[in-house]
Design a protein that fits this description.
alpha/beta; two-stranded antiparallel sheet; nine-stranded mixed β-sheet; globular; 13 strands; 289 residues; Spore Coat Polysaccharide Biosynthesis Protein SpsA, Chain A; single chain
């Protein structure tokens, strides 16, 4: 069965970006001229996703407005003859079918995924975290879907990270089975460095099967007092094989201030309209001018 649905958990408060996220949530912070989450939605669409569910919380109206039709803005752009801008605005609301469900209380990523149960039904589905921006020639999710189609089991996105940072991630013990593909044997959520089974971290892209939902429904809170998706996937691994895909591409952790700044620079340097001037500006600043 093809994967046509994706779940975006976006109910977090984005406390690492306060006060900017006091009224405007993290997912709609602008990276150059698009909100963070739009980059991830575009990745999902490029990978063949046809329906997206945003699992939201309070204060997410800006997110819904961004992907909705903006009649007044479109009329204004039309009257001013700004056809290019009008085309871009219409593309946003037309790119994919979007649905919303409210996560009424913050009980962890696993609980957010459980909120998508009715939307997903009996189909395999993708999960994408909106603050991981992955710049790659082939969409990261498409790489995971290649693995899913070959092995017919859940797939996690994996990236090697420095061991001094491993405690910020869920990580895996895994057997390498083919080029950039692993069978996952064990998972640990945010382990101490000395307890980490490897330097392979789980990144914010997943392909899951609906068998995850009964597990999440009875899952006890784990680390941080939250229902951890990692714990549920580990239980699922006792019933079916779990795979990992060490994706090709550059990941920017835009849930972190420094990661956000790095993403801004990298993305700006890729933009033809101002990359030359921006590069010269950066070189001048590095030289102290």
């Amino acid at each position: 069965m093809q994967v046509k649905k994706a779940v975006f958990p976006v109910a977090g408060l984005g406390t690492r970006f306060l006060p900017a996220t006091k009224a405007s949530r993290k997912e709609v912070l602008p990276l150059i001229d698009k909100p963070l989450v739009q980059y991830v939605v575009e990745e999902a669409v490029a990978a063949g996703i046809e329906q997206i569910l945003f699992v939201t919380g309070r204060g997410k109206r800006a997110l819904e407005d961004h992907f909705d039709i903006a009649f007044e803005l479109e009329a204004h752009l039309y009257d001013k003859g700004k056809e290019k801008e009008l085309s871009h605005i219409r593309e946003i609301s037309e790119m994919v079918d979007i649905f919303y469900v409210r996560q009424k209380e913050a009980r962890g990523l696993g609980h957010a995924i459980l909120c998508a149960r009715d939307f997903v039904g009996t189909e395999p589905f993708a999960v994408l975290l909106g603050d991981d921006i992955i710049d790659s020639e082939r969409p990261c999710l498409a790489q995971l879907l290649d693995v899913y189609r070959k092995y017919r089991g859940p797939v996690l996105a994996l990236e090697k990270v420095p061991m001094e940072l491993i405690s910020s991630y869920g990580c895996v013990r895994a057997n390498h089975i083919s080029d950039r593909v692993y069978e996952v044997i064990d998972m640990v959520e945010k382990p101490k460095r000395e307890e980490a089974p490897s330097d392979l971290a789980i990144i914010g892209r997943y392909v899951l099967t609906p068998e995850i939902f009964p597990i999440l429904a009875t899952q006890e809170p784990g680390k941080g007092g939250e229902i951890q998706l990692t714990d549920a996937i580990l239980k699922l691994s006792r019933e079916e094989a779990i795979y990992g895909c060490q994706f090709e591409g550059i990941r920017h952790d835009c849930g972190d201030k420094l990661g956000f700044l790095k993403a801004t620079v990298d993305m700006a340097l890729k933009r033809e309209e101002f990359s030359k001037d921006f590069r010269e500006f950066l070189e001048m600043r590095i030289c102290g001018k």
